[in-house]
């Protein structure tokens, strides 16, 4: 009889411990999501809202968008945007952050947008482009990220199409390849003036960062005329970044896009 009671007690104890462990596991999975956003699979842009719980990725004013030229409100760009880049803009380092190739800049260069100064912080790349113009997807898009003293962000978006070789991109790519998670100190000067062949012809709208946390209230300035770089230069960047590191098109939600000329 004692043997039967002991066996019954053991079964009850094991059942209790198993249920407790299952409950603990379920609770942990509900409160913690250790996945990190990416551009593919279960952590791709379509799932960023689930993965990045405290982000704005489900906001109403997100980027990128498809810019329809005929729907843009044409306005004079006189004095709205001024670019104060030195011919010797100083790069501090390059890094492969797992999402893009990013060049960080030392303090100094800036833009004046709507009478507010924003300082150049970094340049990174998306392949293919995130923004579309009249539904056209370009081979590459460059984002020049600027931040003012209060933390507000303005991004210059430059589209690239394939053609002749670009000396500027030859310089950028002289520091590649670089492994995922690695960085290289540079501390060299670069002339970025070739990026702004027609700085007075651009689209502007209020949007967000195109990567988590998808912060809204970002000033977007997307230049209408693409720059030219070679197929080989596009491929070299592509081979150093995740495949298709772009976010899908976001709804406009009645936002006004301006064509500044």
Automatic annotation (TrEMBL):
<feature type="signal peptide">
    <location>
        <begin position="1"/>
        <end position="20"/>
    </location>
</feature>
<dbReference type="InterPro" id="IPR023561">
    <property type="entry name" value="Carbonic_anhydrase_a-class"/>
</dbReference>
<feature type="domain" description="Alpha-carbonic anhydrase">
    <location>
        <begin position="35"/>
        <end position="261"/>
    </location>
</feature>
<dbReference type="InterPro" id="IPR041891">
    <property type="entry name" value="Alpha_CA_prokaryot-like"/>
</dbReference>
<dbReference type="InterPro" id="IPR036398">
    <property type="entry name" value="CA_dom_sf"/>
</dbReference>
<protein>
    <recommendedName>
        <fullName>Carbonic anhydrase</fullName>
        <ecNumber>4.2.1.1</ecNumber>
    </recommendedName>
</protein>
<comment type="similarity">
    <text>Belongs to the alpha-carbonic anhydrase family.</text>
</comment>
<dbReference type="InterPro" id="IPR018338">
    <property type="entry name" value="Carbonic_anhydrase_a-class_CS"/>
</dbReference>
<dbReference type="InterPro" id="IPR001148">
    <property type="entry name" value="CA_dom"/>
</dbReference>
<keyword id="KW-0456">Lyase</keyword>
<comment type="function">
    <text>Reversible hydration of carbon dioxide.</text>
</comment>
<keyword id="KW-0862">Zinc</keyword>
<dbReference type="Pfam" id="PF00194">
    <property type="entry name" value="Carb_anhydrase"/>
</dbReference>
<keyword id="KW-0479">Metal-binding</keyword>
<keyword id="KW-0732">Signal</keyword>
């Amino acid at each position: 009889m004692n043997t039967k009671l002991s066996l019954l007690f053991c079964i009850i104890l094991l059942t209790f411990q198993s249920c407790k462990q299952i409950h603990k596991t379920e609770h942990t999975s509900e409160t913690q999501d250790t996945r990190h956003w990416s551009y593919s699979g279960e952590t791709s842009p379509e799932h960023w809202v689930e993965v990045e719980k405290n982000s704005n990725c489900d906001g109403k004013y997100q980027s990128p968008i498809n810019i329809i030229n005929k729907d843009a409100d044409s306005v004079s760009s006189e004095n709205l945007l001024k670019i104060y880049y030195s011919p010797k803009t100083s790069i501090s380092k390059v890094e492969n952050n797992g999402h893009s190739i990013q060049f960080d800049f030392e303090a100094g260069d800036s833009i004046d947008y709507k009478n507010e100064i924003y300082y150049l912080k970094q340049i990174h790349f998306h392949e293919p482009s995130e923004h579309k113009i009249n539904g056209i997807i370009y081979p590459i898009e460059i984002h020049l990220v600027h931040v003012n003293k209060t933390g507000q962000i303005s991004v210059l978006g430059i589209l690239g199409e394939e053609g002749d070789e670009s000396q500027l991109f030859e310089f950028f790519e002289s520091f590649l390849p670089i492994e995922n998670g690695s960085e290289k100190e540079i501390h060299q000067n670069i002339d970025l003036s070739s990026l702004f062949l027609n700085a007075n012809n651009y689209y502007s709208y209020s949007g967000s960062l195109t990567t988590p946390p998808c912060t809204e209230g970002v000033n977007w300035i997307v230049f209408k005329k693409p720059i030219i770089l070679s197929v080989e230069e596009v491929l070299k960047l592509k081979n150093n970044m995740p495949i298709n590191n772009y976010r899908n098109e976001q709804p406009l939600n009645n936002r006004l896009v301006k064509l500044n000329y």
